[in-house]
Structures are given as structure tokens and as C-alpha cells.
């Protein structure tokens, strides 16, 4: 969360097309997978699809909250609906 809300204006710009969206996708894919495995460990008797739905909803909600906070509560960052789609 800290890295998502920190001012990044002084950092070098990466010149890869849509690198930002790719990084969002990769982060949330790993985030979802880790939560999926955690849910499966905590409640092994439930179905895998149930764990996946919960993990995906958690990841999407987290991404939405981060974008909202970037837009309204930070300087040097802005929320972007395309980042939400990437999440």
C-alpha cells in the first residue's frame, strides 16, 4: 500500500508501452493467487471456485480502494479507471 500511495514524480519513467497496466495485472494476479492458497488452507472443505471468487473479489476491492486513495488523498499520484481494469 505504501508504494501505491507514495509520490513517484522523481522516479525515472519506464518506456515500455502500458508498463503500468502490466504491473497492475501482475501484482493483482500474484495477490489473488496468494489469497486463493490462503483460503484453501484455512477452509479446505470448501470448493476451489469459492476460494477463487473470494480472492478475486478481495483483490479487485483492494485495487479499487487504492485507486480511490490515489485520486483523492495523494499528491503526485492520480486514480485511473484503466488501472482498475488492469487489476
End-to-end gap: 14 Å
Which regions are unreliable across 5 or more consecutive residues at pLDDT < 50?
none
Report helical residue fraction. Answer: 55-70%
Radius of gyration: 15 Å
Could you tell me the mean pLDDT?
86
Count of DSSP helices? 4
Note the run of SSEs as H and E.
HHHH
Précis, in short:
The chain is mainly α and 87 residues long.
Describe the structure.
It contains 4 helices and no strands. It is mostly helical and 87 residues long. α2 crosses α3 (48-73). The radius of gyration is 15 Å and the shape is elongated.
Give a topology summary:
Layout lengths: L1 H4 L13 H24 L5 H26 L7 H6 L1
Helix pairs in contact: 2-3
List the defining traits of the structure above:
mainly alpha, 4 helices
